[in-house]
Design goal:
GO terms for molecular function: ATP binding; kinase activity; magnesium ion binding; potassium ion binding; pyruvate kinase activity. Oligomer of alpha and beta subunits. Its cofactor is Mg(2+); K(+). Its EC number is 2.7.1.40. This protein has 587 residues and is of the alpha/beta class. The strands form 5 sheets. Strands 7-8-9-19-20-21-22-23 form an 8-stranded parallel barrel, surrounded by 8 helices. A 7-stranded mixed sheet has the order 12-11-15-14-13-17-18, with no helix packed on it. Strand 19, helix 8 and strand 20 form a beta-alpha-beta unit. Helix 8 runs parallel beside helix 10 and helix 13 crosses helix 15. The two termini are 22 Å apart. The N terminus is likely disordered. The structure holds adenosine-5'-triphosphate (ATP) and pyruvic acid.
Amino acid sequence: MSQSLQFLTPSRSPYLTLPKQTVTSLYRRFPVIKLLIGKHSFPAVKSSSSDLDATSSKVGAVDNGQTVVTGVLSADSVAVRVQSDSGSLEVDTVTEAELKENGFRSTRRTKLVCTIGPATCGFEQLESLAVGGMNVARINMCHGTREWHRRVIERVRRLNEEKGFAVAIMMDTEGSEIHMGELGGAPSAKAEDGEIWTFSVRAFDSGLPERTIIVNYDGFAEDVKVGDELLVDGGMVRFEVTEKIGPDVKCRCTDPGLLLPRANLTFWRDGSLVRERNAMLPTISSKDWLDIDFGIAEGVDFIAISFVKSAEVINHLKSYIAARARDSDIAVIAKIESIDSLKNLEEIIRASDGAMVARGDLGAQIPLEQVPSAQQRVVKLCRQLNKPVIVASQLLESMIEYPTPTRAEVADVSEAVRQRADALMLSGESAMGQYPEKALAVLRNVSLRIERWWREEKRYEAMELPDVGTSFADSISEEICNSAAKMANNLEVDALFVYTKTGHMASLLSRCRPDCPIFAFTTTTSVRRRLNLQWGLIPFRLSFSDDMESNLNKTFSLLKARGMIKSGDLVIAVSDMLQSIQVMNVP
Ligand SMILES: Nc1ncnc2c1ncn2[C@@H]1O[C@H](COP(=O)(O)OP(=O)(O)OP(=O)(O)O)[C@@H](O)[C@H]1O
Ligand SMILES: CC(=O)C(=O)O
């Protein structure tokens, strides 16, 4: 429970009216404060780490875990309440209910990412997804306006604040790729076998003619040749180029299917992908940089970069983020979706904070039959290098239209869970499909079932986990986590507890994929959200000290009071601050 601390007004009201100047200095003292402004503008408190949002009706701010500041804006002053939350524990209501009802073993270890689109952008729809297990909401800057995305971010924040969730936000950049334009307002169009379609770079002011597709790349008609094969969305629909007439390219449909707005286009010649053009393009386009500025200003948790070719671009982006947003802990996710990204895989993953196997575009660049082995390679390498990995695209594609998945889709999801990927992602299924919640439930249920089966069969795989630490202290942390996870399996403990300020020790434990859940206690809401992408972690926000004894006592009493643990449960605890392993029964 929060309690008011300082800055109390003489009338004992929990609010204190402060001049703007004082508030500005308050915000300087707490550099990670996020400020949500009401309908009024409030430029005096804008600082590099504050975030002005014209849609929220209250001022809310959270510091590094010690204090919560809330208030209401008046014409030229702010009513502020400073609260101590030293006695509170933040965990979402769904996890709390699951732990209470089914105990530790029932918790899902595989995390779920949902792409938010027209089917899921409302507050109630987002809430249903959060209740259904969404850990990360992905916004794809390929679609929609920044204003649209801003509203989604604001709703997810409100959901977290009001309902206790820790749904993280991942912003995915568009990247430099050739894609189709809008379909004249239609949500999709069907291309039938043998039909002739026109792909054009012209602008059509008075409506799009029938069977015409706009292409975003001016050099398209010059670059393609008659006889080339044109793949939409990595082969969901195929065409053959039959004729070039100025800016128009006539194509015959050879594999029918559904065309979606802004779908990606690749062209193949003599059985090989035509790559010259892609090699000339920057990985991060000028529009992407504007989107990245938007993401930084909005304080998103992850930025996913499309068509990464080398580690250089990741390093470049990370230094840009560090310069633009001091103290920011935005994580950079490399999307593995091109031949170059596979060629330079290890250096890319080492440079990134995580990776996504973006099978949609990857399947357009390498033969489809090579996608499963590429997925396995990326998942394994990420685990070895201690980076979270997301398996994405077409996991439940048929559920865009139908309420049940195909058996093959369930097998595909099971395989990703069996590979112990950190997270699975829904794309069109949640963005524009007819059954977003059902699709999420399928991911949740399949994950739970496969994880249980894996544990029942005691299939601990002996994956070699190389040392990833660069210092002696890092190596000690790694050894502690490896040993703690092994002990947890051998002693069949109920849960691992980790007290971590940066999240690093939690990720080292997650890398071991232990048999029991990992309760990760961290002091900031941003680290709590970031940990929500990682396998097996149940992130809590809690203020804690360097004294493990008192941390444990406090945690036990808070968790017991909320019915999430009980006396006698066996726990192993490790921490960032104290390099030790403690095994104990909950008193
Ligand atoms: N913000 C949005 N507004 C409108 N439609 C969207 C939005 N986000 C996604 N969609 C729809 O959902 C579909 C699937 O989403 P997804 O994010 O996978 O897009 P994509 O075009 O395949 O891009 P990528 O290759 O980056 O995944 C899109 O083709 C689009 O029709
Ligand atoms: C997710 C994505 O960008 C892809 O699969 O191509």
